[in-house]
Design a protein that fits this description.
This protein is an alpha+beta fold. The chain is built from 14 helices and 27 strands.
Length: about 525
Amino acid sequence: MKRKITLLLLAILLAYAPYVKAQHTYQSVIEPLKNERWWGGLVALGHQMPYADQLNRQDMARNNLNNQVVPLMISSQGRYLWSGHPFRFEVKEGRLMISSDYEKLTPIVAGTTLKEAYLAASAKHFPPSGNLPEESFFSLPQYNTWIELMYNQNQADILEYAHQAVAHGFPKGVFMVDDNWQKYYGNFDFKPEKFPDPRAMTDELHRMGFKVMLWVAPYVSADSPEFRLLEQKGYLLKAKGSNKAAMIRWWNGYSACYDVTNPEAMAYLKQQLRENQAKYGIDGFKFDGGDVSYMDGEYDFYEKSANANRYMEQWAAIGLDFPYNELRAAWKQGGQALVQRLGDKDYSWRATQLLIPDMTAAGLLGYAYTCPDMVGGGQFSAFLNIEKFDEELIVRSCQVHAMMPMMQFSVAPWRILSKENSAICAKFAQLHQQMGSYILEQAKHASQTGEPIVRNMEYAYPHQGFIDCKDQFMLGDRYMVAPMVTPGTSRTVVLPKGKWRDDEGKTFKGPKVMTINVPLDRLPYYEKMK
């Protein structure tokens, strides 16, 4: 009898073993090496990297902070941690504290530098795919209608925006029509009252030399024909324990959403997008939404083991089928041919100061093909009720973008700036175009090696005093860029070892610390000489 009871208890324990494991929390306390600091986790925390002695707890399964999330931590002393699952992390008195529901994480020693740690992690966990997004992303500016039109996307104003850009000397590039062009979410036809002839609009944009992209999201408006059809097909994400579509609370209200873990649902969605392309002459799509931050309920996914992070990963992966793509939220996906963008920044000097550290963080998390939000900011509420713009701020923001892998305009410089300052912005859009072949060369290098295009100074020059440098960056291994990110016309530049030639043709020998004059029409950068 005892033997039967023992066997029964053992069977019960084995049956519940997976559940018991899932409920276990694995804690890791990573003691710092001498002078060791950590990067990683969330791109939006780039401005806090390398993390100081204290950092509040961050939960990758609950919040992506409007941007990409990667289960990777890398250190200035050549160590890294990786997990295939979301984890929680914080810093207390210099100690990196990791909490995982899946596994105990311990550091891997890959070398003695940030670069060695990153390259080792990249090679093993998110190797470069060898593929690129469309090459024009790296040489031509992008134009997005969000700040100018917000929710009033319409044919007449879109064409006016494009014509004004060309008239004011801005190079033609990728043109993105943002949110609210659709009849409703889940439908991929233009609002007829706003777009009397959308095909004629895209044909004109193409004749002018632009490529055309449309904003889309995984959400589906309730009480629509698409909702009823998709629910009948079983293509919508379901509320936990029911056969009913889940309602997701996102920034535009409540909607159902495609279950992107369902291969049939994804195939159907891609078919709808391709039909849109054929009908309207569209080149690609800006894939917004899908954030774990909005998925705070309990769901039944088609993929039984999926969670909100897996959902975000699968939503981002749709971009791989469309070479003209853009993402703002992603889980993992490092090394893939996906255009990422920093989350919406507001219109402020502080937001301009975040661009460099957030961009270098994106590179250190595997996202080489990243755009630094929009010139002047992409948070539309920050642009409301402004009587007089800070023109210096807009110009300096433009200069930061000019030597990045991509640059994107939204608020129209020709509308808010003086003629002279608008011309300065056009000049730096042209500089970005002139640098296009070099930037593309770096993008191709990234597709083969995983190396970032925009590089943290500590990455490029380890253990030389650059660990907290957040206002300079390397563009590839040839150019060091030192933009103005504060008001004024002078700044301090720290040159690394070697011989350098600046944008004015002057040569310098590093290491050297110097104060330079930066009038409003100047972007200081330094070319490394052989």
